[in-house]
Amino acid sequence: MVLIIGGAYQGKRKFAASRFGIAETALLDGASCRPEEALCAKGIFRYQLLIRQLLHAGTDVLEWTKMLLRQDPDRIILMDEIGCGIIPMTAEERLWRETVGRCGCLLAENASTVIRLFCGIPTVLKGELP
Amino acid sequence: MTTFITGGSKCGKSRLAETILSGFPGTKLYIATMQPDGAEAEKIIARHKQQRAGKGFQTVERYTDLAGLAVPEGCGILLECLGNLCANELFGGSGCPEQTIPAGLEHLRSLAEVLVIVSPEISSGGTDYPPETCHYLRSMGHIHQFAAAMADTVIECVYGIPVVHKGVFPC
Considering the domain boundaries, does residue A130 fall inside one? Predict the structure, then answer.
């Protein structure tokens, strides 16, 4: 599994398309896809918003993510880093933010390659670029 | 030679930018983009003025429309900062900073011998904001990607420590 992270709007999708040959349109949007669709997708972007969907549905997100990893180990997952900045005011937002952090660690641990995009510039944090 | 410097709040971006231009022998412009609209802004402006006093900069205040700014050929420019410029364009200027700011940066680069661009890193604090703030975040992300692609050197300032993401440290 390849994990591509970075702040919002740093060029993650464009990079996934250019270096991993996955068209931007072939990536499922974590904000709007159904979790069962995500299980069959080759690539998912805005995974942090799929996490929000799963939390709303009362799903154990870490267990669900482990299942996703078992089903297709060759997936590409794109996720925004959201954990910097101010701790949110509401308990719901804090839970989401913390879950995104924990999921990020789980995904990175299981990824063969982790790349961070910064202003469109990739830095390989784990593994190697293809 | 163009350098793009980004990083968190009060982490030494301006100081580094001034250092890069310290040995420049020609005309040096400081393009200030912050509008003096209140006591806090005036305090920040005063602090920056004091920090660059005696370093040979001519200050040019420019809040929008960089592409329309006349600058002498072969000069050194410190542009500070894209965060203010983007807010000015989005909320009080053209309304489309993703077009006007890249055009403005290209304009400055084409004339300046040395261009240093300073901008705040804002993309990793989440996206749970009102729509206009999300629009600002998106615009800033695109502008940062443009600036980084255009620049010879890209530096992230981390509490005064320069982390080079592209190119070679210029000083």
Answer: no
